[in-house]
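Today's session is about reading a structure prediction critically. Students often jump straight to the picture, but the first step is always the sequence itself: look for stretches that repeat, for charged clusters, for runs of hydrophobic residues. Only then move on to the predicted structure, which in these notes is written as discrete structure tokens rather than atom positions. Here is the chain we will use throughout the hour.
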Amino acid sequence: MKLKTSLISILTFMLSLSTYAFFPWAQGPMKEGKSNSGVVGASYKSVVDILTKLEKKYPELVTLDNLGQTADRQNMYGVILRRKNIPTKKMIYISGATHGDEYLNIADRLINAFLDDTNEEFYSFYERGGAFMVIPIFNPYGYTKRVRYNSASKDLNRDYSNPLTGVNRFTQKETQMSVQWIDQFLSKTSAQFVLSMDYHCCFNGALLQPWSHTETPIAPPDRLKQDMLGDLLKKQFDDALYGPVTDILWYAPDGTSMDYFYGKYGTIAGVYEARYGVEASYINKHVAWFKDIVGEFAKE
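Below is the predicted structure for this chain, in token form.
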């Protein structure tokens, strides 16, 4: 245990110096035009245009919100999927491209799957008062430039406050606007925040659990719920790993989204570390995973 603790301390120190070259899954800023996930998406404008069309096509289900402008004056967008005439009881939040060079073409396509009326599980979720909140491109600047950081050279998945340690962050527009959007929705609807999932790349299909900033695991019964989420993932991917960050990646990042959401709301929270270059081909498995999620964690 002492050896592992020492190794984690050393790795955390190296990461604090931005020596991400030691770890492909934690790589620092890359040259513009490169991708750390093996996937290059359409222009940011094209992504927004698609979301706008979905709102027009499904007016009873889709709300496209402009969350505000980032420091480089790009609009940041979030999508809410729910039956607008039914009180919302439970909410699931999904984000993608928090690290701009880790776009996977998963979070954005999940929106389409959630609207496909042949996927009865999702429509049943809406009828029960369920809602999805999705920010498919969390870091517009990084996505456009294909770099990890935002326009201020900040790692957005280290910019969340940590309720456990009392460390206050939220220095960047992207994190500020996203949590304000979520808080306003929860305040307006009194919905239960059931689950948050942040899609990243790449560690061969691993589901990371809180806490990320410490070796100390979360306690039952919350740990059992987190493990149940991992078991549902293994139904789709036999080789999937799940567990606390320090058990899988062997370093302890502070300021992550999952620590914030779990610490503040007690929600089931995770980071999915995708497979390099191939994860987009497994979109049907991710859709099936979320069918199981709404069936297990968002019941009546």
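Discussion point for the tutorial: The radius of gyration is 18 Å.
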